[in-house]
Amino acid sequence: MKNKPQRMCVACRGMFDKDNLIKAVKNKDNNIRFDEGKNLGGRGAYVCKSNKCREKCIKTRGFNRAFKCNVPNDIYENLK
Asked: Does domain 6-79 have CATH number 3.40.50.800?
C-alpha cells in the first residue's frame, strides 16, 4: 500500500495528508490562485482547512513567506 503524500501547513507547520489541505499555487507568470483539483503546476503552498489555521495564515501572511513575494489581498480574502 502506498503512503499518501504529506505536506506542511504554512500556519501550524504540521504535516498532513495532501488531501486534507487547501493548496495555493504560484505559476511561472507569478500569478497566485487556489488549486481545487490539486493538479496545477508551479510552486505550491498548503494550509489546513481548519478556521484556526486559515485565520493564522491570514494574520501572519503565511503565503507571502512561502512564495517569497507579496501575495494580493484578494487571495487572503478568498481564504476566509
From this structure: no
Read off the pTM: 0.90
Residues 6+ apart with CB under 8 A from 68: none
What is the mean pLDDT of the segment spanning 12-31? Answer: 94
Scan for cell 505550491, then name that residue. 44
Any residues with CB less than 8 A from the CB of 53 and at least 6 apart, and which? 9, 11, 12, 47
For residues 11 and 68, give the distance between their C-alpha atoms in angstroms, rounded to a whole number.
Answer: 15
Helix, strand, or coil (residue 67) = helix
Amino acid at 27: N
Confidence band, pLDDT 50/70/90 cuts, at residue 10: very high
